[in-house]
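Assemble and predict.
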Amino acid sequence: MFRFSSASLGLGGTKTILVLALAAASTAGLAFDNYSGVGRPATPAEVKAWDIDVRPDFKGLPKGSGSVDRGQELFEEKCASCHGSFGESNEVFTPLVGGTSKDDMKTGRVKGLSSGELPQRTTFTKVATISTVFDYIQRAMPWTSPKSLKPDEVYAILAYLLNLSEMVPADFVLSDKNIADVQKLLPNRNGMTTDHGLWPGAAAKKGGIGNGGKPDTKNVACMKNCKSEVLIGSTLPEYARTAHGELADQNRNFGPVRGTRTLGPEAAKKAADAGTLELATKSGCMACHGLKNKIVGPGYSEVVARYKDQADAEERLVAKVKAGGQGVWGSIPMPPNGHLPDEDLKTLVKWILSGAK
Amino acid sequence: MSDSVKKPGRLRPAPENFLSEEQVKAVATGRRDFLRKSFMVAGAAMAAPMVARASEGDANILELPTWSTTLGQPVATRPYGTPSQYESQLLRRESPGLARVGGASVSFCPLQGLFGIITPSGLHFERHHQGWHDIDPSKHRLMINGSDDSLLKKPKVYTLDELMRLPSASRIHFIECGANTGLEWGNVAVPTVQYTHGMLSCSEFTGVPLKYLLEDCGVDYKKARYVLAEGADGSSMTRTIPMEMVESGEVLVAYGQNGEMLRPENGYPLRLVVPGVQGVSWVKWLRRIEVGDMPYATKDEAVHYIDLLPSGLHRQYSSVQEAKSVITSPSGGQTLLDRGFYNVSGLAWSGRGRIKQVDVSFDGGINWQTARLEGPVQNKALTRFNTNWVWDGKPAILQSRAMDETGYVQPSYGQLRAVRGTKSIYHNNAIQSWKVIESGEVSNVQVL
């Protein structure tokens, strides 16, 4: 010990003490009774600003009202571009209304769901709780400016949808006072069951909503001679084989397998052309040249017309693009393109001469 | 093709799809002069085997490549690493015609080319309901409140700074969209495993168990039996979760994914992790947790993610992803290179716990053999299985069948449809079949 300087001894000694002190502190830290200094109380205004959900028992429903007529105006302005003027469009999203009847309103079950008559399920053929629709319009609509609707506007738009669904008359005014009455008219209000095994919480008999996780399908892990024949129910339709593009390009091109080539050579050329056009754009060529038309320099079809019969066209063009040039197409010079890799130059020139597309 | 089995070690060109059909014809008719030039251009990139010196050996061995004879790139040339340029084909992809607007669409994870059980964060599938945002973490807040004051004593607000000070847990879990394989409820519709099963990913998530936060806010577990999770996106995505799951400690308020922060497309900076439950409940961009005494019937548990039964009834609050498996290699849209040995590989998972066994069939389910489960086999996580196969060049139908620790066995299409009909969309966990024909092409079929 005497061989160490007092300074290093002192430092070492201090370090040891520090480490011990930290260890003691961290041990003490395990015995917390709260996360001291973490989080703070939410103010009533903050909770109000974010607590926007509306439950099936209407807890959270804001006060307000809106008429069918007002709803029609708002719907046309804010909703029709996606849903159609009458909530019937299938263009962007599945239809909101349709497929329900007066009888369904009596029974609370949409008959078309069991009879198979429905070509497509709409929102009002499925939804069993009107709170759901109010909540969703209020929190998420219109699509591009969610949460911009005032409560009265939400009531009005919902009133219009209820009228389109023939649940309320044209002079109806929906409000926080009568929305519970509307619930009693929902055509599929009795159409839901929670008696299944896919709810991860407590079973209904224990105060939850599911069956406690009991599965509805049963298979046995048979190992030998499990059946006498293989029944194929469905195979991939030919159109579906190519609908997802070139599968060869969606797999690694080494390893145990290759992606199956699903598109012909023509499609492969198209893909290569698209790639080269991208390269031309990235390389700055398209700033001065059009595919057909002159911009600053000649259009590529004009280049082809001039060079098409020349045997050494490719070589000469590569050299010209690389070094730049002046005089052939007018007084504005083409700057040298020495920054482009030779391989890219060749690809681009080949593409131009093959009729750049 | 059969030669390779008889003559191991023969030199043969790898089928990189390097030559066009015209060029193949040209070679066949004796015109080989252009080959050298073509190979010179692409050879460095594609490592195409030479035929010129075939008698001496593989040109890729005989002629030293650039990477052995020149100086390579320095460190941190790409400070946030990206995959090799030769890995550009495995990407998240949309299925054409599935959705009209990208903000409410799905991108599928390329399962056909992945290994092990962890999904690279950049390939994790996406499903957005109103588009994604890259949220400023310094402005993001998590609020916890009760649907009334009796359920939670102290409504609180937390910042990321604060949440990341709390005790954290890291766990590997799969996440699967309830609609995964939904395109195939009625019949075969899509060609590859990316589109049949690619709304599936698995990551190590890091975060704070939600129960710590609820307890910090003074929750009354006796009364508050449900939790509403809400996102900060335009749709303010909302889902009901049972308190039993929160109390178990499984549910995480997560900020980490595979060692880095969540990616924006996966909920940066905060999302809920609800192991075993369909992805829609893993609310992204999590901004609020409300405890309540009843389920909430939000849009995505009352209009979507409900299962239509043949009776016309819909099952509501269906959430658990039951045991399921799929062979990823070889799989639909791929072509086997040759006869001979293959490691058949796939994934199995269960929302009810650990995978206990996976069986594989090569004859459409008449006979089965038990596959190897590669470790780790974890709770509510993807499990990789492998099995040996020597393809004799004859047609075959490959299937896998998972069993979980509850003894539940993945059903066939016939068994699933007997209960749920053909018009459902969600929770299709039927046994997947891949048909192999003599050419080696693998395609998607359904065996009942």
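Chain B touches chain A through 143 residues (CB under 8 Å).
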